[in-house]
């Protein structure tokens, strides 16, 4: 495993946040825009249950490096 390019996923059930450490430039946009979810001093540092899906998506769209992406989870039919 390449410790410089870790890929982790975090979900609130509706949306899954994908974080790729190798792309992260530490701009801090995620922390400034949504400090309830993105808390770099905590483990895990991403807690998607602390915001709405819309707030999470809005924050991810402000990530300049592409280190944060998301996908919508399948709904049970």
Describe the structure.
The chain has 77 residues and is α+β, with helices and mostly antiparallel strands. The chain has a single domain (7-67), classed as 2-Layer Sandwich (Alpha-Beta Plaits). It is 17% helix and 21% strand. The protein is built from two helices and three strands; from the N terminus they run E-E-H-H-E. It has helices at 29-33, 53-60, and strands spanning 7-11, 15-20, 68-72. The chain has a three-stranded antiparallel sheet, covered by helices on one side. Strand 1 and strand 2 (15-20) form a beta hairpin. The longest helix is centred in the last third of the chain and has 8 residues, at 53-60. The protein is globular.
- The total of beta strands comes to 3
In the CATH scheme, what's the topology name?
Alpha-Beta Plaits
Please state the overall shape, judged from the principal axes of the Cα atoms: globular
Rg, alpha carbons: 12 Å
- What is the level-2 CATH architecture name? 2-Layer Sandwich
Label this structure with key terms.
alpha+beta; 77 residues; three-stranded antiparallel β-sheet; globular; Alpha-Beta Plaits; 21% strand; single chain; 2 helices; 3 strands
